[in-house]
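This part of the workshop introduces the protein records we will be handling. Backbone structure tokens are a discrete shorthand for how the chain folds in space. Once this layout is familiar, the rest of the handout is easier to follow. The record below serves as our worked example for the rest of this section.
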Amino acid sequence: MKKLIWMEMVLIGASVLIFRSVWNFLDSKAWASGGVGLTVLLVAGVLLAAFALHHIQKPTEEKEDKRKVG
């Protein structure tokens, strides 16, 4: 259990470093700083987030349906 918690902390730290790197990379690109670029990135982010959340919740809903039937 302690190893799992430690690995989760490492994952959070790595995610922060990745986020910061991507942020700085996109700041260096002229197209990503303009209105159109920001709009495209926002729409892409919302679509990816919705897709991921849908697939995260889907297995939970299937398990609940099986419990009701069985």
